[in-house]
Amino acid sequence: MVLRSFLxxxxxxxxxxxxxxxxxxxxxxxxxxxxxxxxxxALTAEQRDQARKLFETAFGLLQSGDVQAATLGFERGLAIxxxxxxxxxxxxxxxxxxxxxTRARVFYSRVIAFDSSSAEALKAQAxxxxxxxxxxxxAAPGPDKTYxxxxx
Length: 152
Hints:
- By secondary structure, the chain is mostly helical.
- It has one domain (2-130): Serine Threonine Protein Phosphatase 5, Tetratricopeptide repeat, CATH 1.25.40.10.
- It is built from 7 helices and no strands.
- The protein has helices at 2-14, 29-41, 45-64, 67-80, 85-97, 101-114, 119-130.
């Protein structure tokens, strides 16, 4: 439990600006998650319907293979309803298809944090274990000390 919470906070902190709408604030990730939950809980019926329509469109785009457009739809919908577990999950799935595993980790972690007992959270946990871990950057090799240029 503590490790999962650490992982969620770590992933969110590492890619603060990646999700745009809520992760760019300077507050701690846990506070962001609470604010996102509160924002979603306070939606009016009209706002909820607007987000639902965006999610449906994005999911259709994802199914048809237009992954880039799908991510835009999910981002717009998540700006309205940031704690939507299903939308966060499919945003992560779309990002994996685009090869953006760093951002995908953020959205999978959000799914788990928002509803750890949901089917999407279980799928997100499985996906996180199957995503390759990011490699640290490799430093450029230094000068070869055995090389000595000859003067001509």
